[in-house]
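Sequence in, structure out.
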Amino acid sequence: MTFTPAPPRRTTYREVLSDQRFRLLFATRTVTITADALRILTLSVLIFATTGSPLMGALTFGIGFLPQLAGSMLLGSLADRVRPRRLIAAGYLLEFAAATAMALAHLPVVFILLLVAVVAFLTPVFQGASNRLVAETLTGDAYVLGRSLSSMSSSAAQLLGLAGGGIAVTFLGSRHALLLSAGAYLVASLAVRLRLPDLPAPDKKESGSLVRHSWAGNRALFADRRVRKLLLAQWLPSAFAASAESLVVPFAGRRGFPDGTAGLLLACLPVGMLVGNLVVGRFVRPATRERLVAVLVAVLGLPLLCFAFGPPWPLCALLLLVTGTGFAYSLGLQRSFLDALPEGSRGQAFGLLTSGMMTVQGVGPAVFGAAAEVVSVGAAISCAGIASLCMAGYLARESRGARPVPAETAGTG
């Protein structure tokens, strides 16, 4: 795998946040991620209370995965063909309308799930446009730190949304809590519409079927060996970690841990992500970040091996915290991924990256959950760790094979 030589100067978070356009996109995305977590939790409670079916409650969490991949495959090129302000604001407005309808219209459960799936189908389009705009706004190491900030805020926003969702459902009820999430989407849409400059769409002269161009664009991205490897390098390790995370609740149950322990253990991963992204993003030099990719993927998987031995819950918490820090591996791939993309297809590529990530994080838990039916839950978690270590070995081998440095530049790092 080719890693682009890093720029010598290290950017700071303060410099990244001083850019007004990035600050707006960063803030609105953080608000909507909080709203997403609040909406998902609230809907799950509402649907379970309506149907009494654990399956229907679980479907509420999973229904937003696969439609994103379909949307990226069929409509992804739209992110590079429409003015970004119009597209991003419309996407948040769509989420506002959907959340409002689910709160006020007393829709049948099937219609609620269908509405969630429709929104998920369109999500890669406006998220791809937003990510493309970030890539055009920030360059070099500033882009990597921008992605680091986005990752940290995403973890914090999910925690806030889940915690706030529990409080809102308790004191306001499910439907009023849904209206809170709808209000957050509306604020984000208005902020983008009023504060983001009306930038032109990329100068693309394509005509004809949107679906045909989207499909052709995805084929071209997958045909590029470098892009394909960088997509898989970002998808697979996080999918293995998500698979292990999905087994924490049954692991805690089988081990007889005290009540509430599962929630504490689940919180350790995002806390570790925050710590890892902060340390690697702020204090590690760009060239070193890129050399540490394989090491950090190993950090992601190595602690999971210990679950096969049934450790006590305080040790489990520490292991998951360390695992979470390994997610910082993605920072070492960001600049190489951006440099590998055709400039006219960046929006589509970012939509594909996000939708693919969501899909493998949905499929991975099903695969390792099935494994847990055959072996112990702890052993299945360890298998996810072994898969991460195999990926770390592959990335290390690719990095060594792709980094032969000419003699005249050797040692410049």
